[in-house]
Amino acid sequence: MATEKNPVQELEQLQDLINSSLDIVKKNITENGDPPLTLKTVEPHPIYSRNDPHLAQALRTVSSSAQMLRALLDPNTFLNDITYGYHDETALLVACQADVPNLIGDTDRHVDEIAAQAGLNPDKLGRFLRNLCNSYIFEETAPNKFANNALSARFKPEGKRAIVGHCADEARVSSCKSWEALTFPEYKDSTEANKAPFNIAYNTPLTYFQYVATERPDIGIRAKKAMAGKGFNLGQYLSLYPWESQKGAKIVDVGGGIGAATFPILQANPDLRLTVQDIPDTGPEFQKNLEQNFPEISKAGRAEFIELDFFKSAPIKGADIYFLRHVIHDWPDAEAIKILSGCASSMSAQSKLLICEHVVCPTYRSADENSTAEKGSSSEARFVAPEPLLANWGDAPTSRLDLQVYTCLNAKQRTKLEYQALVEQAGLELVKVWRNLGDETILECRLR
Ligand SMILES: C[S@@+](CC[C@H](N)C(=O)[O-])C[C@H]1O[C@@H](n2cnc3c(N)ncnc32)[C@H](O)[C@@H]1O
């Protein structure tokens, strides 16, 4: 007998997923005696930094289900949202350039006052702010009066506004040239770092990093602040790797920028020491970040900066851990292998190389490719989203970052198998994949 099809099966599956996951969220908030979960307050809610895998899974399930539900129930609106969505990014750029979150402060203010302080036309500014209110960024409290809320208040620190500037300005201008880069004969099959959409947009033969260092230090410095400002779920990030068991270890953060990825690790683990190595113009911003934001690490002399061009020389020898976060994704294979080989030449048999990146997982279900952990790992199942969601939970942050590094540097995010092949060409072996439900993965490598 043929099984009868349930015409609302996907809806029911989504309904169950949302209900059961929201129950977990509500229970967690109640049991922890948390403040109300609402967009109306400006304080970040503790639920977002709680390191609880069960809760992380519930939160991710709700947001992936909500995304699918919107696509399923109202396709036109959903697609129009994507088509016209660039205005949201522009509106955010306007609000950040004008520093509206800090101009508003802790009370609601009329757009005439905000615009006067920003030197802008009030009617035009108000229209951009209203667009953001539709995405729950700012709250319109009365005609033409705006207040901060949980989301807009996140843009008060400079680093948070810098990431919007970096993405909505030079990266987006470059992204608009993607079609040309995909079709121009000298660009389409190139793997050179200076054959990216960025090079067409800025009409330069220099790579993004060369160009911002020599021609536009203003956007170069903003991009470094942006790395620190992008922010991550700190609890999830710190729990990716057992830092607490690396007693007294010396970490060399290669291409470590202003220390955005490693200062939080040092702050949570007081016996770790750090050397950040990066191109010379990064030094002053590193020092500023260290002294202003991590004074206790600075006073204890636990962190230093040493200049390095990783294409010309290897990082310093003798470290326990070499750390590469969001560096390999900036480069095509040939350059990535050079950087990894440099690290390998400085490593001893005891050193580890930790590559911290977003790892690409497919949207379809495949036992092999959805897995970023070792085969047979019992914890693997929770990394694959439940039906009817896409197997990778609709991992937009990873594919957006993939397109971002293509846009700026003709580079790519990679799958676990691609990383494995890459590190082997540099004389290294991938020994373990550390993962949780956050965006980042750590690939632990040793000398072969
Ligand atoms: C995407 S940022 C990542 C920064 C940092 N690892 C983090 O996660 O915040 C890439 C870094 O690579 C550095 N970089 C680029 N070219 C370099 C080179 N030739 N030698 C050393 N560092 C370089 C940049 O200055 C930048 O700080």
What does this protein structure show overall?
With 448 residues, the protein is an alpha/beta fold. Among the domains are: 10-79, no CATH class; 85-155, Arc Repressor Mutant, subunit A (Orthogonal Bundle), CATH 1.10.10.10; 234-359 and 414-447, Vaccinia Virus protein VP39 (Rossmann fold, 3-Layer(aba) Sandwich). The protein is 47% helix and 11% strand. It contains 20 helices and 10 strands. It has helices spanning 9-31, 53-73, 75-84, 86-97, 100-104, 111-118, 122-134, 158-175, 178-183, 185-188, 197-201, 208-214, 217-229, 234-238, 263-268, 283-293, 295-299, 333-346, 396-409, 416-424; strands at residues 109-110, 139-142, 145-147, 250-254, 273-278, 303-307, 321-325, 352-357, 428-435, 441-447. The strands form 2 sheets. A 7-stranded mixed sheet has the order 6-5-4-7-8-10-9, with helices on both faces. Strands 1-3-2 form a 3-stranded antiparallel sheet. Strand 7, helix 18 (333-346) and strand 8 (352-357) form a beta-alpha-beta unit. Residues 372-378 have low confidence and may be disordered. The structure holds S-adenosylmethionine.
